[in-house]
Amino acid sequence: MSDKKWDLVALASIPVIMTLGNSMLIPILPQIERELKVSSFKVSMLITVYAVVAILLIPLAGYLSDRFGRKAVIIPSLVIAAVGGAVAGGAAWFMSGNIAYWTILGGRFLQGVGAAGAFPIVIPLVGDMFKNEDEVSKSLGIIETSNTFGKVLSPILGAALAVWLWYSPFLAIPVLCLISLVLVVFLVKTPKRKEKPPTFSEFVASIRDVLKVKGRWLYALFAIGGICMFLIFGVLYYLSETLESEFALKGVVKGLVLAIPLASLCLASFLAGKWIGKNKSRMKWLGFAGLALVTVSLGIIGLFDNIYVVVGLFTLGSAGIGAALPCLDTLITEGVDKKQRGTITALFSSMRFIGVSLGPPIVSLLIGSHHFLLFGILAASGAVGGLLTLLAVKPEKRGEPTSGSHSKQDDQEKQGEQDEQGNHDNKEKEDGHDKLRKRRVQESETDQGYRPSPLRRKKSPY
Among 16-20, 84-88, 144-148, 166-170, where is mean pLDDT lowest? Predict the structure, then answer.
């Protein structure tokens, strides 16, 4: 793992920068709303459109990475994300009103295209780089920690940049993407492909087979990842609006408050990635415990409409989400073959982006309703994630996650293989008996004086 230290540094820069490109906007959404004179729902769409585009394109990016290589997809994706940030920043700088809003939305669309081929492809690339499962889980823990570190840094950096110019977070994105691009080009050495890449028809067939056999636990993990992101971005949006509208907290101070639960998320991700190793059962129960913790925290928040309670308990709940995320990454990465790893992890990333896209708009619609209703819905979402972890993810003793239906199918296949082997063994046994019987007959005939007649040769005419 030490020989790939700089590769990991370069790859870890991608989730940091992709997260900054989205989450830096969270603390300045009310400011954007005032500057562009648009509704809070329209402003929340700046987060949503980024995520929706990524949702649609991530599976395609996963296939392209399986077909042409991970690095060949990551590099152009970073370029596209940089262009999107430049478009959004330029629109905010030189335009105003609705024209500026829609052009910024177009820039965010391009950023989403770039995001689809960047961070989601990092996860399978890490799985390709290491053969040892323990190294894979530790490396994915580092990647997930860098992702959450980007979330910790983003409200502080976004608020600090907006103090100078409200649209400077948009302008920072091309610079950050360029830094990551240079690191990936010069430091990341992808492993050589030993197998011929699949054709599109082979790819579709293999994915269909994987989902048919392992679909139950994969779909559960997809949903859990989406729920985790929904909770994080939903509560962050709530805090951003509440801190500014009710407590007049703005700028860096507001960013520091938003960073408190995210710092807890980051620390928990780092510790979980180091602790889980390659123990799939431990991953399941740690993920379940994390989701149970965030569910209880959100449920209690619903009973107390107090900002200190919200920040304190959400910090505790964020640690639960942080503990669950590396478990989800490793279960998926180690649970599928390398041939389908890029696409399956891409589907998982799509679900995470669905959570990102749903959090702000749903909370923006519920934020005017009763406090208990808002956090009751969030707590119920966390409970669904916990139940899915408990009931649908069932690691086998040998270490691979599976489901009840998959286990039954495996048992049937195993029984069929045993029956086939038994028939083969019986046939070999019968052949052995036949040979032994013939040899005994020959020995018996020899003992009774039987001799084979000699061959008669024709006399030569010469």
Answer: 144-148
| 3-class state of residue 278 by DSSP | coil
In tens, the pLDDT along 275-330 reads 887 778 888 889 899 999 999 999 999 998 888 999 999 999 999 998 998 888 88
Which pTM value belongs to this model?
0.67
Q: Report helix, strand or coil for 116.
A: helix
Residue 396 neighbours by CB under 8 Å, 6+ apart: 280, 402, 407
For the chain, what is the radius of gyration of the CA atoms?
A: 30
Q: Which two tokens stand for residue 29?
A: 């959404």
Tokens of 457: 């040769």
Place of tokens 């006399």: 459
Tokens of 289: 């415990």
pLDDT digits (tens, 9 = 90+) for 218-269: 888 889 999 999 999 899 889 988 888 888 888 788 888 988 998 898 888 8
Residues contacting 442, CB < 8 A, separation 6+: none
Q: Set out the domains of the chain in order of their start, with CATH numbers.
A: 2-189+198-402 (1.20.1250.20)
φ and ψ at residue 340, rounded to 5 degrees? -105, 0
Is 434 buried (19+), middle (13-18) or exposed (0-12) by CB count in 10 A? exposed
State the DSSP string of 196-233. PPPPHHHHHHHHHHHHHHHHHHHHHHHHHHHHHHHHHH
- Provide CB contacts within 8 A for 162, sequence distance 6+: 27, 28, 31, 168, 169, 251
Q: Compute CA distances 163 → 28, 30, 171, 233, 243, whole Å.
A: 10, 13, 14, 23, 17
Distance, in Å, from the CA atom of 91 to the CA atom of 3, rounded to the nearest integer, reads 44
What phi, psi does 401 have (nearest 5°)? Answer: -70, 145
Pick left, alpha or beta for residue 37 (phi over 0 → left; psi -120 to 50 → alpha; otherwise beta): left
Q: Is the pLDDT assigned to residue 396 strictly greater than 80?
A: no
Instruction: Measure the CA–CA gap between 207 and 344, rounded to whole angstroms.
Output: 8
Tokens 């029984």 found at: 415
Element (H, E) at 402: strand 401-402
* Residues 359 and 52: beta-carbon distance below 8 Å: no
CB 154 within 8 A of CB 23: yes
- In the block, tokens 């979402």 appear at 381
Taken in order 124, 130, 134, 135, the sign of the CA dihedral is: negative
Contact residues for 132 (Cβ-Cβ < 8 A; gap 6+): 278
User: Which residue bears the tokens 């007049």?
Assistant: 248
Specify the pLDDT at position 338: 67
Q: How many residues does the chain have?
A: 462
